[in-house]
Amino acid sequence: MRNRPLAAPDESLADLRVERRQNLLRLVPIGEWNVGQSPRLDSLLQAVRPEGAHEAEIDGSNLTELDSAGAWLLLRSKHELESAGVRIRGFVLPDRYAPLVRTMEAEHLAPVKHAVPPHGFVYFVERIGRGTSHALSQGYGMLGFLGRVTVEAIEAILSPRRELPVPAFVRQIEETGLTALPIVGLLAFLIGVVLAYQGADQLRRFGAEIFTVDLLGVGFLRELGGLVTAIIVAGRSGSAFTAHIGTMRVNEEVDAMETMGLNIAEILVLPRVLGLMIALPLLTFYADVVGLIGGMVMCYFDLNITVPVFLRELQSAITYKTLLVGLIKAPVFAFLIGLVGCFEGLQVERNAESVGKLTTRSVVESIFLIITFDAGFSILFSIIGI
Amino acid sequence: MSGNSNSNDVVIRVHGLVNAFNGKVIHDHLDLDVMRGEVLGVVGGSGTGKSVLLRSIIGLNHPVEGSIEVFGTETAGIEASELKGLQLRWGVLFQGGALFSSQTVAENIQVPLRRYTHMSQELMDEIAAMKLSLVGLPPDAAQKYPSELSGGMIKRAGLARALALDPELLFLDEPTSGLDPISANQFDELVGSLQQSLGLTVFMVTHDIDSLRAITDRIAVLVKKKIKVGTIQTLVHDSDPWIHEYFSGSRGRAALAGVA
């Protein structure tokens, strides 16, 4: 029995004496054979060879301590000697260790085999193939999920028996919208400042400083405001959706809901997606305003464009259509973020690693989709001439 | 099962422990001594703070008041990660196993070996295989991830990890809950034989009256925010209604047939 902390390998604490007498090999372990000493004892025992001995004896009566690591080393030597054709004449241990050694001897002991990690060209091709088919099945799964959510959403809305989960829905608006105001505001303001500064720098060369205002107005309202807000929200709320639903899956909460006949889409997905579809356009409008204020401040300090002049120029540069073109994209982005976030959350397997992996994937996928759809909108708007 | 140790040798000494959460007192000046080499079973109704007691002892929960000494070192109010010297001397099996999900079972067992010893990878593999067979897991379990194991296998793998450094003191949090009766019996036998052969002191939170009968030397019952310690023989005749019901209810009677 040990009553001290583990000690580092040390000759004076544990040792092995090897004695040879004619055909007899005697192994005499001495001292504390425990896990702390085992690295050194391991190499001592590895060095022992039968060298013509026909019989062997392991005499552990001088052991002051033996734990399972020490016992394993002795048993291993015993087995190795036996398989080398050496007869074991005696295996003596203090009585108090007999139960331990009996328990261990009863078990078949095979060392752990490490799988060799695959490599090479075939593996490289295999990985590409696997990745491709995974991406395709991911897309297919997402499409199926979209269908399921749509059907269940319609059912939930049309069904007179059920009440829509209004409190959950309102809480989502608060969590994804209201609490995002500081960060969205700060970033929109800074982007407004940067855009005005860079724009002014370029346009000054043509003496067209005043068009900085047009650049700001059109750039922010049509594209940047919506894009920046959607990307922040994807990182902030999309990841939260995945992590939350994913952890619920790890805890078997989702399974519990399903066995109770509860509608997953109605309880978990709809409040999040609908909440975000309300919150994101509002956030986008807020970002537009704050971004323009940022630009306005910069114009005042950098170009001496006063606020009334800025506003007059802005009025002539943009129409309500410019604003609407930007805002109309927001619910679509919100839908994408919510859908991807919830979908990936429901894909989580029952382990901690999976939550992290799918949360990352959820953010990457939703930002990818946001930018792809934004490009699509640009093409669409140019075709219909807005 | 004890008797191989000096009865004055106290491994865990809890004195005047007070735990409260949000004003609700769980432990009210609770005292408990755990002797070297004994198996102590801790029982109590739901919410009586069995796990809280265990967590307080191993430094995961900071008590409001009181002192807890493990191997003569105060653990109350000290961060769990600062109890380094002690952590080499105890092993903990958490209720859900608490295996690291991103690592295989063998890697899980090797975490403490890697951290605290300088073994070669070969020796660590051998030790891992040995621990697995000690806890009755097949060799192929070594390369599996925790998510691929059944509940009983997770418990066994968790025990193998707790035993990795051959600790003197073993904490078990409901080790047999969720196991079928045969596995639970095997688990009890396993803990009993390991306790004997390694001279372990075992602190076991459990609900399983069969385990209590099979391997514990003494039983600590959490009632009325305090602890009552005794053996099955003495506790059966206790006047407290909860203890009476616990040992004399139909399950208790069946498990203890022939004891009292």
Task: Please give a structural write-up.
The complex is a heterodimer of chains A (386) and B (260). Chain A is built from twelve helices and five strands. With 386 residues, chain A is of the alpha/beta class. In chain A, strands 1, 2, 3, 4 and 5 form a five-stranded mixed β-sheet that branches. Chain A is elongated and about 110 Å long. The N and C termini of chain A lie far apart (84 Å). The model of chain A has no long low-confidence stretch (mean pLDDT 87). Chain B is of the alpha/beta class. Chain B has ten helices and ten strands. A six-stranded mixed β-sheet of chain B has the order 6-7-8-3-9-10, sandwiched between helices. In chain B, strands 2-1-4-5 form a four-stranded antiparallel β-sheet, covered by helices on one side. Classes of the chains: A alpha/beta (386), B alpha/beta (260). Chain A binds chain B through residues 1-3, 5-6, 9, 34-36, 38-39, 42, 67-69, 72, 76, 96-104, 107-115, 349-353, and chain B through 4-5, 36-37, 71, 85, 88-89, 101-102, 106, 113, 116-120, 122-123, 125-131, 133-134, 136, 139, 142-143, 145-147, 163-166, 168, 193-194, 196-199.
